[in-house]
Design goal:
binds uridine-diphosphate-2(N-acetylglucosaminyl) butyric acid; alpha/beta; four-stranded mixed beta sheet; elongated; single chain; 32% helix; peptidoglycan synthesis; 26% strand; UDP-N-acetylglucosamine 1-carboxyvinyltransferase; 14 helices; 420 residues; cell division
């Protein structure tokens, strides 16, 4: 397994091109199942979860051509409507094929994702929503098995706000008969990006970006081209990194509008920001100040930035209190940050971070995607050498992170299995 070796203490200076958003690209790739025509996608990030999704779509019979950040997909016919356990267990977002398969082909068999490191993460709301649309849907032998002649529009209010749940139901509703209203819908920018692609394909959707999405079903969807929106979490991760190390970086191909709550917190920590139409410049010349925050659904502070801002707090001046409200077990990075000399205590879903003047390099283990990013940030700021093991977690969701960091002056290298 690859490892990352970081020699901390270098300031970051220079330019970073932000990749397309993982969490927009994943549902958008699955949306190709909704049409027999070609879907042309650009700005698709190069990372493991995208490879896994393309593998799953290929198994289902979706033809594909990939050239760098461009992907062409065509689902004229499918060979199978089954998403097997071997793939779903490695990536929960595989559940996103359920709605499209059922809506277009009338049947789907998708392995139930197991629990995952950051929490239980059930898919009951996806199932409940599709059942409300008339699907015959049951869980049997570890699979969600769904059938429907044609889905029927319905008013669906999910018990909690769910991002992929909203996406699955929105995709299914595009081909349903009649009108579907999704209440308590997620408002994330990635939902808007998916809706924009679906509209280009001929879907009739209104209200995306609000908590009430109205979809009027159509008979068929056609081909379209779409450029994936910028990754707001990658953007936020690099901004946390420069806030932790000091320096001056400019992020390109990004969108500050999608990062309101994150930018507010980084400003509070002392990062100076200059926002352009597609750029964000962040510069930092002081020790960060501790910032308390609470994760909530968009437009609140994202849970996907919690670990990275915690790493910043670990070296900040003062004490911060963090409340994680989305996932019940998303503090696995705490133990590892403490190995680097941080002083973090957890009580239920509250973490209290006492800022230390400095961290010291050590060997640590990545436990999930954003936890890995927090360890990279801490390693960049720490004195001495940090080795991060199990970085396959990082590769799932970041597009060539270490090369982007090297280009702005970080001393970071990948040790492949043979070297490690
Ligand atoms: N939930 C249920 N039942 C459901 C669906 C969700 O109980 O049927 C609960 C979850 O267990 C969780 C909460 O509702 O406690 C919110 O979960 P949500 O469904 O919104 O999460 P998700 O759709 O599985 C997406 C992102 C995550 C991100 C969350 C929250 C994708 C592919 N994944 O997950 O991204 O943390 O929304 O914003 O979009 C990441 O990129 O590192 C990542 C984990």
């Amino acid at each position: 397994m690859d490892k990352l070796r970081i020699t901390g203490g270098q300031r970051l200076n220079g330019d970073v091109i932000v990749s397309g958003a993982k969490n927009a690209a994943l549902p958008i790739l699955c949306a190709s199942l909704l049409s027999a025509d070609t879907i042309q996608l650009d700005n698709v990030p190069r990372l493991r979860d995208i490879d896994t999704t393309l593998k799953l779509l290929a198994m289902l019979g979706v033809r594909q051509v990939r050239d760098g950040a461009s992907v062409e997909l065509q689902a004229e016919h499918i060979d199978s409507s089954e998403a097997p356990y071997e793939l779903v267990k490695t990536m929960r977002a595989s559940i996103l094929v359920l709605g499209p398969l059922l809506a277009r082909f009338g049947h789907a068999r998708v392995s139930l994702p197991g629990g995952c490191a950051i929490g239980q993460r059930p898919v009951d709301q996806h199932i409940k929503g599709l059942a409300a649309m008339g699907a015959d849907i049951r869980v049997e032998h570890g699979f969600v098995i769904a059938e429907a002649k044609r889905l029927q529009g319905a008013t669906i209010r999910t018990d909690m706000i769910t991002v992929t749940g909203t996406e699955n139901l929105m995709m299914a509703a595009t081909l349903a008969e009649g009108q579907t209203i999704l209440e308590n819908a997620a408002r994330e920018p990635e939902i808007i990006d998916l809706a924009e692609l679906l509209i280009k394909m001929g879907a009739r959707i209104q209200g995306h970006g609000t908590d009430r999405i109205v979809i009027d079903g159509v008979e068929r969807l056609h081909g379209a081209q779409h450029t994936i929106c910028p990754d707001r979490i990658e953007t936020g991760t690099f901004l946390c990194a420069v806030a932790a190390t000091g320096g001056d970086i400019t992020l390109h191909n990004t969108n500050a509008d999608a990062l309101g709550a994150t930018l507010d917190k980084l400003r509070e920590a002392g990062l100076q920001l200059e926002l352009g139409p597609n750029t964000i410049r962040g510069h930092m010349n002081t020790r960060p100040k501790a910032v308390s925050f609470r994760t909530t659904e968009y437009p609140g502070f994202p849970t996907d930035m919690q670990a990275q801002l915690m790493a910043l707090n670990a070296i900040a001046d003062g004490t911060a209190s963090i409340v994680e409200t989305i996932f019940e077990n998303r503090y696995m990075h705490v133990q590892e940050l403490n190995r680097l000399g941080a002083d973090i205590e957890i009580d239920g879903n509250v973490a209290v971070v006492k800022g230390m003047p400095e961290l010291s390099g050590a060997t640590v283990m990545a436990t999930d995607l954003r936890a890995s990013a927090s360890l990279v940030i801490a390693g960049l700021a720490a004195r001495g050498e940090t080795t991060i093991e199990r970085i396959y977690h990082l590769d799932r969701g970041y597009d060539r992170m270490e090369s982007k960091l090297q280009a702005i002056g970080a001393h970071i290298e990948r040790l492949s299995k043979e070297q490690a």
